[in-house]
Amino acid sequence: MKRFTVPCNFGHTTAPFHIYIGEAGPRRHPLYYQSVWLREERGGEIPTEVWDSFEVLWQLALKHDVHFEKMCIHSLGNANEIEKKYRGRIDPISDAEKDGFRSFADDPNLEDVKMARKIGNIDNKMALLQGKNIIDYLRKVQ
Length: 142
Fold this sequence. Notes:
By secondary structure, the protein is an alpha+beta fold. The chain has five helices and two strands, in the order ββααααα. The chain has one domain. A two-stranded antiparallel sheet has the order 1-2.
């Protein structure tokens, strides 16, 4: 299980909240039960931008029969590495795609290489875009 801290909405304020990503079933959004608890017990909600990006990652994980937790780690970690390497460029994900996604990190993790090969370039780009969306949202609200 992997923990991510995301800013959640509590009325007119935003505060950090831990969400936990584990293996998700095929019927409910992976954040569904955490979202219900957050709303009913704390009066908060997971931002739509975060919810939607995790949903796309979940669908990609189901489509390619890969672990959702690993998909999240892959997309967020590599989106972060790509952003560092291609800093200042207008579209870092497309630039990384032109380089054949070989530039995830100076020493790419074997799991990342296997994941990228398994899901293919189009869905890999989609996963990386979702990771970037989440990272961009986190930066925007800090």
